[in-house]
Amino acid sequence: MDSVKQPPRPDGADAPATPPDFEAALLSLRGHRLRPELHLEEVPAPTRIAPYALALTGEVNRTRDPDDLLGSGRFVVLYDPDGQDAWNGEFRAIIMGRARMEPEVAQDPLLGEVGWAWLTDALAQCDAEYHSLSGTVTRVLSETFGGLELRGGEVEIEVRASWTPGTTDLGPHLRAWALLLSQVSGLPPIPDNVSPMSRRR
């Protein structure tokens, strides 16, 4: 994954250089080989929560045709050299993953617990060091109307969470988010002895 650019610098001609810890964190996000169905893009990061930030969006799509979109999500890294009490640290990872679900699956009363287990299992599987984890799993019902007539509906699952990484190595956290997106989107797991390969154009 080569979409992470150079670390942003604060505004101003005399602005200090990017803090070494944040630069190390950004470098740790580069070069990861993720599933070919997952397409990442760097987008403008939030600027009011922390002095330094990075944001990526992800789409799970086998063909890149919008009609074939299986799921989507967001991965945000915040860094405050002074730390924030709510984070219990200097870094904070914020993620979201969303995908459509079959109506019968969406009616499962344990869906929330399953969605949360996907996240915690992904963090454990990727050996991501973290603490202060919190979040929500939401079922979203969207109904489409034409005039007064109900034309159709769809159900989505949405997992939102944030946690404080234990080190500046954020690679495992990126891979855990990618794994969560794959699971939410219904992709089959990749066998342990098979490496994901990027498609060539």
Verbal overview:
The protein has one domain. The protein has 4 helices and 6 strands; from the N terminus they run αββββααββα. It is of the alpha+beta class and 201 residues long. The chain is globular. A 6-stranded antiparallel sheet has the order 1-2-3-4-6-5. It starts with 19 loop residues before the first helix and ends in a 17-residue tail after the last helix.
Q: Layout of helices and strands, plus pairs?
A:
Blueprint: H1 20-27, E1 38-43, E2 52-61, E3 69-84, E4 89-101, H2 103-106, H3 111-125, E5 130-146, E6 149-165, H4 171-184
Helix pairs in contact: 3-4
Considering DSSP H and I runs of 4 or more, what fraction of the residues is helical?
10-25%
Strand residue percentage: 35-45%
Mean pLDDT: 85
- Overall tally of domains: 1
E-strand count? 6
Structural category is alpha+beta
User: The biggest beta sheet, please?
Assistant: 6 strands, antiparallel
In one word, what is the shape? Answer: globular
Strand order of the largest sheet: 1-2-3-4-6-5
- Which residues sit in consecutive blocks of at least 5 with pLDDT less than 50? 6-15, 193-201
Q: Which H/E pattern describes the elements? A: HEEEEHHEEH
Q: Give the count of helical stretches.
A: 4
Oligomer: single chain
Span from first to last CA? 16 Å
Q: State Rg.
A: 18 Å
